[in-house]
Amino acid sequence: MSFSMRSGVHIIWLGLLVCCLVDIGASMEFTGAEGQWARFPMWNACCESEMSFNMKTKSSHGLLVYFDDEGFCDFLELLLHNGRLSLRFSIFCAEPATVLSDTAVNDSRWHAVTVRRNFKNTTLIVDEEIKWVEVKSKRRDMTVFSHLFLGGIPPELRSVALRLTSASIKDQVPYKGWITSLRVNGSEPTVIGSEGINSDICEADHVCLNGGVCSIVNDEPTCDCSETGFQGKDCSEEEVYVGGLAHLMMGDQERVPAEVSHHITASASRSSFTLGALDRANACSSSLPFTQR
């Protein structure tokens, strides 16, 4: 192989690897430890806006999402309550409105969650379930000053109750589980800071080679190599393609387990016997004299 061809192959492999890393997206493991939190830029959820993510947990309680106007009137909280998602929010100091999903999410399975803001209305989508609630407020726009918090809130906010619009939020236990594919209005927000969070699991701990796709399966990063032509834990082993019985009989049997090789050889022998019998039968029939009736 010439130098230019080798260089071309290496460039293609590098391109596939880069694409793999780009498509992975952020993965965050929330340990549920005391003092855990992840901080993101402010989500301006005043009017028409949405946030979405995928989650997996076996916990029944925990704080998933929180933001507010830093101690005045407006806030939104998304909690894990008895294995279901509970969303509560208020605008202009109105009586908080609450919506509770019917879908249990503490089954160690992945669930898609979307929070959609539309002035006085907020919609909670869990997989295929859609519920919405309206707050009875004299003002329709939600005011937001704080950062967007996931999994918990920093200790400095817990210690100063006046900075939290929802005072009860400081008593919520941190979320324990996984969150991936976080999007705010279709874009992936950048983590400003965090504590007790294991992030970028796929990228840091288990890079999939040759275009393999990394995902979290049973709390472990796993590579899907099905579309790559490679196999193995990290898609680094070239697949062995079997071209047919003749190909195996011509010298590739060492790649096939003995019991499989024996089965294939036996099948091939039976096939050869059947074909031979048919050939002999045809030969005999062709030699018979033609009799006109």
Question: Quick recap of the structure?
Answer:
With 293 residues, the chain is an alpha+beta fold. The protein folds into two domains: 173 residues, Jelly Rolls; 40 residues. The protein has five helices and 18 strands.
Label this structure with key terms.
293 residues, Jelly Rolls, 2 domains, 7-stranded antiparallel β-sheet, 24% helix, 32% strand, disordered C terminus, Laminin_G, ConA-like_dom_sf, Neurexin-related_CASP
What is the alpha-carbon Rg in Å? 30 Å
The CATH first-level class of the largest domain comes to Mainly Beta
Distance between the termini: 69 Å
Tally of domains: 2
Percent range for helical residues? 10-25%
Poorly predicted regions are 9-25, 245-293
Categorize the overall geometry. Answer: elongated
| Class from secondary-structure proportions | alpha+beta
Beta-sheet strand percentage? Answer: 25-35%
Biggest β-sheet, characterized? Answer: 7 strands, antiparallel
* Averaged pLDDT: 79
Total DSSP helices: 5
Annotation, overall tally of beta strands:
18
Strand order of the largest sheet: 10-9-8-3-12-1-14
CATH architecture of the largest domain: Sandwich
Pfam families: Laminin_G_2
Domain EGF-like: 198-236
GO cellular component, one term: membrane
Domain Laminin G: 27-208
Give the SSE map:
Blueprint lengths: L2 H22 L2 E5 L5 E4 L7 E9 L5 E7 L6 E7 L2 E7 L6 E4 L10 E8 L2 E6 L2 E6 L13 E3 L4 H5 L16 E9 L8 E3 L1 E3 L1 H5 L7 E5 L2 E5 L5 E2 L5 E2 L6 H8 L5 H30 L6
What does it look like?
- This protein folds into two domains: 173 residues, Jelly Rolls (Sandwich), CATH 2.60.120.200; 40 residues.
- A hairpin with a 2-residue loop joins strand 8 and strand 9.
- The strands form four sheets. It has a seven-stranded antiparallel sheet.
- The chain contains five helices and 18 strands.
- 24% of the residues lie in helices and 32% in strands.
- The longest helix has 30 residues.
- The termini are far apart.
- The protein is elongated and about 70 Å long.
- The C terminus is likely disordered.
- The protein has 293 residues and is of the alpha+beta class.
